[in-house]
UniProtKB/TrEMBL annotation:
Biased composition, class Polar residues, residue ranges: 179-189
Alphabetized UniProt keyword annotations: Disulfide bond, Glycoprotein, Immunoglobulin domain, Membrane, Signal, Transmembrane, Transmembrane helix
Predominant localisation class: membrane
Membrane topology per record: Single-pass type I membrane protein
Protein name, UniProt field: SCN4B protein
Length: 204
């Protein structure tokens, strides 16, 4: 039971609902990261890595009552999170994004209270020259066509069910007629219980 409890309470790191971010060349981009733990933390260490090798931010947090302090960072990275509020937010902003900044950003968190087990979450950054406004016409046509086909399919299935229901009812009706008529015939012809009446002739 204790083992299951520690697993349930393990530190979790998240970058939000989506793990992809798109940024304009020369703009600033937010790289989100939050963590949760139900056993608290002390002297927690967190780092951000670019493409698994280059450390771009290194911070420490004494306790829940104190804000993180900087250990080391890339000059273009700014810490924008907070850990004394509701969420343990350790997000960063990457300034003046360049095409070479596109890639994988991993947020690592290590809590000494959990035997220094390390947890992480990854976000992928794409850098573009300009944000293209998607032409939704084709999408709308596709959605319309697919929606129409689904509608037709549902209608077809409903009609099929109704037809099958009617056929079943008709067949059930016929069966009832057959049963009652055959029952009547047997009784009228004196066939009911005829097997029981067919006794062997008494032996002399």
């Amino acid at each position: 039971g204790v083992h299951a409890f520690t697993i349930a309470c393990a530190l979790e790191v998240s970058v939000g609902k989506t793990n992809t971010v798109m940024a304009l060349n020369n703009s600033n981009v937010l790289l989100p990261c939050t963590f949760t733990t139900c056993i608290g933390f002390q002297d927690l260490v967190f780092t951000w890595h670019f493409n698994s090798t280059e450390m771009i931010y290194h911070g420490k947090i004494k306790t829940k009552a104190s804000e993180p302090f900087l250990v080391a960072r890339n000059p273009r990275v700014e810490f924008v999170g907070s850990t004394t509020g509701k969420d343990n937010n350790i997000s960063i902003v990457l300034k003046n994004v360049e095409f070479s900044d596109a890639g994988k950003y991993t947020c690592h968190v290590k809590n000494p209270k959990e035997k220094n087990a390390e947890h992480n979450a990854t976000i992928f950054l794409t850098v573009v020259q300009k944000m293209v406004e998607a032409d939704n016409t084709l999408t709308l046509i596709i959605v319309g066509v697919v929606g129409g086909l689904i509608g037709l399919l549902i209608l077809f299935m409903l009609i099929k069910r109704v037809v099958l229901f009617i056929i079943k009812k008709t067949q059930d009706g016929k069966k009832e007629c057959l049963v009652s008529s055959s029952g009547n015939d047997n009784t009228e012809n004196g066939l009911a219980g005829s097997k029981a009446e067919q006794k062997a002739p008494p032996k002399a």
